[in-house]
Structures are given as structure tokens and as C-alpha cells.
Amino acid sequence: MRRMNRAMTATGGVLLAALLSTASAGVAAAAPQAPRQSAATAAAKATAAARGAVAAEGAVAAEPRAEARARAAADCRPLADASAAARAIVNAACSQLGVPYSWGGGSIHGPTYGQDYPGGGPGSHDSQVKGFDCSHLVQYAAWQGAGILLPEGSWNQAQWGGATARFDRGQGLAPLQPGDLLFWSKNPANLGSVHHIAIYLGNGKMVEARESGTLVMVSDVRLNAEYAGAIRISGGEQPPAGTKRYVTWGTNVNLRAQPSTKAPVKARLSGPTPVDVLCQVHAEMVEAEGYRNDAWSYLPKYDAWISNIFIDDPKAWLDVPTCNS
User: For each of the chain's 325 residues, which pLDDT tens digit applies?
Assistant: First the structure.
């Protein structure tokens, strides 16, 4: 059961002036005089008419914007052959197209409010912006698309030990496939200094959360002096058939021989870890950090049980079957 994370319209005004004229005395005498209205009433009617015109103009202007969004979404897809897992990673990232960049924002579950960037500028109010930074967009896409849990931070992701292939900057884009991760560093020889990461789409394109004040977007890959290379994260271990992958939270989480805190410990998870759940049961109540949960899940990889209170998911009872007794 996971601990929950911490959600412009510009309006314009139109100044109107009403011009009133009177007819000649002869015409006025020949025709009945229209009822007089106050200046406020006349102005209100004129304002309503103007607002209608502005709304109509706005509706027309919205059509090109909608078309532009549709074109961008059409461009955000795997643009070359790739495995099913790699395509799923790309599609998960593309599902967030148009979400704002927020420094420190995002998680494997979706966009969150970020942190105010200490260097000022457009990011100085990112604690009020719900979105992704570059590494959390990548982390979200890897987890939601392929059940791959990447570490925090673009520099850690660039050095991730689970990569199935690595490509240096000298290889360019030729060997890359959709779903590969691209990264940039002030010193490309030092992956510990990586400061930006994105997801390759193919054909020289990528999807990225670039910087404060922008939205998740499709861009041309920047093969500049800071381009440091790429890694492939798809093609690794897959969840066993019939299981569903989740991730744990907390440190030193015990896996037990039976769904009870009194049962022998079979394994211990030192930190957040992907786990493949086969089924669950109601058993001993467990309390942690103010939460209570009596659900336990069976992990076939470990032939052991974990309390659902240590599974990072908003549901106390997961979307998996009940175990047979």
C-alpha cells in the first residue's frame, strides 16, 4: 500500500464604446420613438455581443491548436522496429505528451508537484507545477510500459546495471532502437555528471521533459558536444506467467515463509524492489507508518510472502487473484 505523493488560463478583456446617433427631427416626428435604454443597459448588450464574437474567434483559433496537438501525438510513437517491451516504453512516455515539466516532479505512478529550482528562472515556482522532470518521465515510462524499475536521477539511470546494451557517443544513432535511453553530460566521459535523459523514438527523434516552462515534447536528438551515449533497458528478465509486477517501498522488508510476521524470514529486500505477485490472502494485520493492512501477497520468485503494506500501490487489496487454500 503506497504512501501517496503530493495538482493557465488567461482571460482577456475587451473595451467597448457604444456610438449613439439621433435621427433628424422630421424623421423622428414621422416614426414612433423607440423606448429609451440606460447607458448601462446599452453597454451590457454591447459587451455580451462582443464576448460572443471573442468566443467564436477563440473557437476558431482552438482548431489549429487541437490539430497541432494531434500532429504531435501522431509523431510520438515508435518510428522503427522494436520489441514489444520497447514499444510499450515509448507509448507510456508519449501518453504524457503535453504534461508540464516540473523540476523534481513525477513518479512511476504519474506526474506530481515538483520543487522550486534553487537557481531561479522559470523553475523557481515548480512546486506549484504538476508534471515530470526528465528522469522521472523516463522512470515512469520504463515502469508503466515494461515493469522496469529505474533508479532516481538521470546520472544513476545512465549507469544502471540492468542495461542490456550500451552505446557510446561515437556510435551515434545508427545502432539505437525505439525505447533506448539517451543522455547528456557536461563531461561525456563521466556518466556521473549526466544532467539530462530522454527516450529514443527512432529516425532521429526523441520524447523528453526538457526544462521548466516547457511541456513533454517530441524533439530532434541533439548530437552536440554534451551527448554522452545511450543504453538499452528492454530485453531483460520478464515477469513469470500469471503474475503482476509491483514495486516495494521501505528498507529491509522481510519476506516470510507464511503470511505472518511470526513466520521465518526467507529473504530481505534492502530497498525498493520489483516483485512479481501471483495471488494474495487476508491474514495477519500489519501496521506501518500509520497504515493498517491484513493483505499478504505470494511471490513465486522467492517462494515467500510479503505484507501488502510494503507494496507501493494505492490499493490495499491488489488487482491479483485470491490464493487457493
Answer: 544 433 333 333 333 333 333 333 343 333 444 444 444 444 445 445 544 544 444 444 455 556 655 666 778 999 999 999 999 999 999 999 999 999 999 999 999 999 999 999 999 999 999 999 999 999 999 999 999 999 999 999 999 999 999 999 999 999 999 999 999 999 999 999 999 999 999 999 999 999 999 999 999 999 999 999 999 999 988 888 999 999 999 999 999 999 999 999 999 999 999 999 999 999 999 998 889 999 999 999 999 999 999 999 999 999 999 999 6
* DSSP assigned state of 258: S
Asked if 208 is an active-site residue, the reply is: yes
Do residue 89 and residue 224 come from a single domain?
yes
Catalytic residue among 76, 94, 134, 136: 134
- 226 part of a folded domain: yes
76, 94, 136, 208: the active-site residue: 208
Whole-angstrom distance, CA of residue 165 vs CA of residue 233: 7
Q: Is residue 58 part of a domain?
A: no
Among 76, 94, 136, 196, the one annotated catalytic:
196
In the DSSP assignment, the letter for residue 79 is -
What is the four-CA torsion angle of 3, 259, 295, 293, rounded to 10 degrees?
-50
Same domain, 228 and 248: no
Same domain, 109 and 204: yes
How far apart are alpha carbons 290 and 281 in whole angstroms? 21
Q: Which residues form the domain of 106?
A: 84-232
Confirm if 215 and 98 have CB atoms less than 8 A apart. yes
- DSSP letters, 112-133, are EE----TT-GGGGGGGG-EEB-
57 belongs to the catalytic site: no
**Is residue 142 in some structural domain?**
yes
Threshold 0.90, pTM exceeds: no
Helix (H) or strand (E) holding 64: helix 39-75
